[in-house]
Amino acid sequence: MSKRRVVITGMGALTPLGLTARESWQAVKDGVCGIAPITQFDASAQKVKLAAEVKGFVPENYLGKPEAKRMGRFTQMAVVAAREAVADAAFTLEEAEADRCGVIVSSGIGGLSITEAEHDRGKERGWDRVSPFYIPTGICNMAAGMVAIDTGFRGMCSCPVTACAGGTNAVGDAFHYIRDGYAEVMLCGGTESSLTPLAVGGFTSMKALCQNEDPARASIPFDAERSGFVMGEGAGILLLEELEHARARGAKIYAEVVGYGATCDAYHMTAPRPDGSGGAKAMVMALADGCVTAEEVGYINAHGTSTPLNDAGETAAVKAVFGEHAYRLAISSTKSMTGHMLGAAGAVEAIFTALSLRDGYLPATIHYQVPDPACDLDVVPGQGRSADIRYALSNSLGFGGHNGTLLLKKWEEAPSCS
């Protein structure tokens, strides 16, 4: 029996590079750095001074003041990105059954800023005086729930909470859900907005964040001088659609999702396995899922966080999977531009990977300067370049040992396998 094919027909994003998917992708092609001094709180007393914030986002301009007030920032961004994805796909519910349209949107932390504010309020006024909106605006799954309410999608609605792998898990789970016949349309992706004193302090104390105050030397994946990641925020939402459903309504197609792999290191709370074997298995699973050989892959959008352990381990994983072909493909990290958007990262990077296939363009790892023998692959240093690629992977690795890989294919009529 042939597997149902799944294509990307709509995209929406708010990132440190732009307030739409199109703006963000153009900034990636231009090599723009979205990292700058923190403005959302006074960071003068903290060791980390930089972040990758979404700039110029005024929720009331998109949602209206009453609606915006009843959503956390992470939910606001998810709803806005989902609206963009639906509009971009020119999709309306009149073209589908609402019960066959679902939502899977990840968030790793949810409304942490709301928890911090309400904790202060409770200590000052009494715990029974916290906002009645605290719980429904702060919980991680509310972004998925509000996207479903906003769109009227009544199928499966879920929220993977798998740290930095969450956005990839959301897209992969949605892909399988459509491919296996449970839905025709899925809005999927991730959202995160946790740039708060507590979150930055927590990541700093565990020595995960870069403390360099120069934006050009902060998020530097695969560089020998890398010293930690830069926290980012944002949202990325994709509209996935069963191919015949998309064809029937004349939808444009960005790319095809053909494979997905998910594994767990089962090793350490925060550190990946040094040999990268968990991530390697996720890539192998994605390739097998899509009936694609390693030699057919031309590009990998790496997890590439700019931490010493991640980048070396991910490089080792790529070598284990691809052998000598690892030195012929490109592997770059767009986190050099966006910082690390945590639960939104995999979704935004899936969008960038799909657009890489469509445009035949490899994003750069900007600000790369000092080679590391442990990261000796083609990281597309400094400046992006044109390349005709047919298949690409997008990797995500999360605290807790979560590994996820998506395999995307440049859009063409012929299937990768049946």
UniProtKB/TrEMBL annotation:
The keyword Protease does not apply. It catalyses: a fatty acyl-[ACP] + malonyl-[ACP] + H(+) = a 3-oxoacyl-[ACP] + holo-[ACP] + CO2; (9Z)-hexadecenoyl-[ACP] + malonyl-[ACP] + H(+) = 3-oxo-(11Z)-octadecenoyl-[ACP] + holo-[ACP] + CO2. Its EC number is 2.3.1.179. Pathway: Lipid metabolism; fatty acid biosynthesis. The keyword Lipid metabolism applies. Keywords: Acyltransferase, Fatty acid biosynthesis, Fatty acid metabolism, Lipid biosynthesis, Lipid metabolism, Transferase. SMART domains: PKS_KS. Gene3D superfamilies: 3.40.47.10. GO terms for molecular function: 3-oxoacyl-[acyl-carrier-protein] synthase activity. The active site is at residue 164. Belongs to the thiolase-like superfamily. Beta-ketoacyl-ACP synthases family. Involved in the type II fatty acid elongation cycle. Catalyzes the elongation of a wide range of acyl-ACP by the addition of two carbons from malonyl-ACP to an acyl acceptor. Can efficiently catalyze the conversion of palmitoleoyl-ACP (cis-hexadec-9-enoyl-ACP) to cis-vaccenoyl-ACP (cis-octadec-11-enoyl-ACP), an essential step in the thermal regulation of fatty acid composition. This is 3-oxoacyl-[acyl-carrier-protein] synthase 2. It comes from Pusillibacter faecalis.
